[in-house]
TrEMBL record:
Coiled coil: 127-154
Sequence ranges assigned to domain GGDEF in this UniProt record: 302-435
Protein name per UniProt: EAL domain-containing protein
CDD domains from the UniProt entry: EAL, GGDEF, PAS, REC
Lineage: Bacteria, Pseudomonadati, Pseudomonadota, Gammaproteobacteria, Lysobacterales
The UniProt record lists the keyword Lipoprotein: no
Top-rank taxon, per record: Bacteria
Domain PAS: from-to ranges: 164-214
């Protein structure tokens, strides 16, 4: 399961101390878990929260008095909801643990050990999502079975379901073929009874093989007999199926004269599975093969490997040979790839210039070896395309498919993530994700990224994009938010979520902040020379609050370049200010002497966000983007946004709404009195400051 801002944990904290509850929320966020917390102060409020709002986890202090543990368990049990309860304890002893488990608690967390709280909450959330997914899948399966049943009934193909050799289901076409009037006439009848006597012995062997779990043949030719005793040549097509929860065989039985020439049908099917430019498998066929491989892995614990492959600098290669030669280039790459894989490996054209390889019965070492052999096969070879000789290198992202990752979307996502990561650090390399050997792969990936980030800081390889903040009330003014990107060696842009977590782990956020702030001041100066008074908003991180030299650096840059400090606006996440309040206060006081303003972003996700403003005098608040989700139709989010706007106006703070996606949201923001809006609905982020504010 992925944790991030787009997947927020709805956490209900029952604790008499608001400070202790806020500390837990901050600790979870620092661990990468986005939290939407609520804290009831009495039983009625607790009852209202679990009835009126969806919740994910309840975290209750063992000694809570406002809402006691016994009342929490009673009300959660009475709600009938799958709402896990975790108990915060100061220490664990055997008797107390058994008592809590007997009362219905899903687990306990040690209050004084934040890492333990993080792990327990994370594990319980994963389990909850798994249960929810299972229930959704069950409902989907019931609906799919219902639709399949209707389709089978209306199908012109004669179809029957066979369990242990007996008919348990047959459609109208099947009954008519053999002369039965209703299913009751055939229910429980052996399939053998519909096979001509001279073919029975042969057919018994087939049924015996199937009973041993052997895979059925895709086609089986025999001779069938009707209820009236008429014989006709028939072809049976088998497929594994389930019916009302029972494993069974689906049989499609056709008269021989109704069957196409098998060789022609086989050739037609083969052509449907191929990409016409490369002769490789097409995407749809490959995905079916991948689903089968994943199913086999889940059932039999076999190991498979998936590789996603792209040629490096593809756009540059096309420029060399001409855009009209794109198919020739892709075909040449496919031919080289086909010659470099093993005879049992499946190769497909997976995108415009992306390829995929599925290697069966391959452990991590074998999959890694294949990826490296493919990389070197291209790096050491000249590709011929449209009378051009090209030296092509590959970026490869892969996944070792095993018991710990048997979900096709997750596998493709990890492979794509690895592919983008290799592209971002220059290409000509392979990155393989192995869930059972994550540490080894992670060390190599992180080391490459740390080097890449350090190079970007030293050589100005970061890029800033700009998104306008549109005033909803009052006179228009030029104001943009700066958004950081990293320029890859192939010219593509790497999104910050790819590299910022690694930068944070390795203490590089402070250096990145300094680069961004310095560049922002330079840009303001450049705009001033063009007679534009442009205000830029810059994100800074917790690391900058602990860097005493940054304040002095900002002052020096403003003075040297002659920039009005009021044109530089800094923003810090609400949760980081809460956990570094003294540092944030000192930083704000330091930059205020230059006219620089500091505000809060990701505002509103704390337990009592406006309480923080009594200790930190933010110039503005930027409402967390989670409140913008379905704002036009969500009464809950609309109410919260109006509360934020009203309270901010009372305190004299400006408000900003980000991630605005539709006209309905704009209407709500305008009527609520929000000061600024930004988002793709108004203008996407881009490399130029060219929005028409007037």
């Amino acid at each position: 399961m992925q944790f991030g801002k787009d997947t927020a944990l709805r956490l209900l904290i029952v604790d008499d101390s608001v400070e202790a509850a806020e500390a837990i929320v901050s600790g979870l966020r620092n661990a990468g878990i986005a939290v939407r917390p609520s804290r009831p102060e009495n039983e009625d409020e607790f009852q209202s929260l679990i009835e009126s709002q969806p919740q994910d986890v309840v975290l209750v202090a063992q000694n809570a008095a406002g809402v006691t543990l016994s009342k929490v368990m009673e009300k959660v049990d009475a709600s009938g909801k799958d709402l896990p309860v975790l108990v915060l304890v100061n220490a664990i002893d055997e008797a107390a643990l058994l008592k809590l488990m007997a009362a219905g608690a899903r687990g306990v967390a040690l209050r004084e050990h934040m890492e333990h709280i993080q792990n327990v909450v994370r594990a319980e959330w994963v389990d909850l999502e798994a249960r929810r997914s299972y229930r959704r899948l069950e409902a989907q399966m019931r609906e799919i079975e219902r639709r399949c049943d209707a389709l089978i009934d209306s199908s012109r193909d004669p179809i029957a379901y066979i369990h242990e050799g007996m008919h348990i289901r047959a459609n109208t076409a099947y009954l008519e073929m053999f002369g039965f009037e209703s299913f009751e006439d055939i229910e429980g009848m052996s399939l053998l009874d519909l096979v001509a006597p001279k073919k029975v012995d042969e057919f018994k062997k087939l049924l015996k093989q199937l009973s041993k779990g052997e895979l059925p043949p895709p086609r089986y030719e025999t001779e069938a007999v009707t209820l009236e005793g008429d014989h006709f040549p028939a072809v049976m097509e088998f497929a594994q199926a389930t019916y009302e929860g029972e494993s069974c065989l689906q049989v499609v039985l056709r008269k021989q004269e109704e069957v196409f020439d098998p060789r022609a049908a086989e050739e037609l099917e083969r052509l449907r599975q191929l990409d016409q430019v490369t002769g490789l498998l097409n995407r749809q066929t490959f995905l079916r093969a991948l689903e089968d491989a994943v199913g086999e892995t889940a059932a039999k614990a076999t190991a498979q490997g998936l590789l996603l492959i792209e040629p490096d600098h593809y756009a540059r290669l096309l420029q060399e040979i001409g855009l009209d030669a794109a198919d020739d280039l892709v075909a040449a790459l496919a031919e080289r790839l086909r010659s470099a894989v093993g005879p049992d490996d499946l190769v497909a054209r997976f995108g415009e210039h992306q390829f995929a390889v599925l290697t069966h019965n391959s452990d991590y070492a074998q999959t890694s070896k294949l990826a490296e052999s493919l990389r070197s096969a291209f790096a050491d070879t000249v590709i011929e395309a449209r009378n051009h000789s090209l030296n092509v290198t590959l970026s490869i992202g892969g996944v070792q498919i095993g018991e710990r990752i048997t979900n096709v979307p997750a596998i493709l996502g990890k492979a794509a993530q690895g592919l983008q990561s290799t592209i971002g650090v220059g290409g000509n390399r392979a990155e393989l994700y192995d869930p059972s050997a994550t540490d080894r792969a992670e060390i190599e990936r992180v080391a490459a990224w740390v080097t890449r980030i350090r190079e970007a800081i030293a050589n100005d390889q970061f890029v800033i994009h700009f998104q306008p903040l549109v005033p909803l009330h009052g006179a228009p003014e030029e104001m943009y938010e700066t958004l950081l990107r990293l320029r890859g060696e192939d010219g593509s842009l790497v999104q910050p979520l790819t590299f910022l977590p690694i930068a944070e782990e390795h203490g590089l956020l402070g250096e990145i902040d300094r680069w961004v702030v310095t560049r922002a001041i330079q840009l303001i100066a450049e705009r001033q020379r063009l007679n534009h008074r442009t205000r830029l908003m810059v994100k800074i991180t917790q690391a900058s609050l602990q860097d005493d030299s940054l304040v002095q650096h900002i002052g020096e840059q403003l003075r040297i370049l002659g920039v009005d400090g009021r044109l530089l606006v800094l923003q810090i996440p609400e949760s980081k200010v809460f956990t570094n309040l003294r540092g944030a206060q000192q930083f704000q006081a330091g930059v205020a002497q230059f006219g620089v303003r500091v505000g809060l972003e990701q505002f509103g996700i704390g337990l009592n966000p406006f309480q923080l403003l009594s200790h930190f005098d933010a110039s503005f608040i930027k409402i967390d983007r989670s409140f913008m989700k379905e704002l036009g139709t969500s009464a809950e989010h609309q109410q919260r946004v109006r509360e934020f706007a009203a309270k901010a106006q009372e305190l004299g703070k400006q408000t900003i709404a980000e991630h605005v996606q539709d006209a309905g949201s704009m209407s709500t923001l305008f009527s609520a009195g929000i000061d600024y809006a930004q988002g793709h609905f108004l203008a996407p982020a881009g490399p130029e400051m060219d929005y028409e504010f007037g």
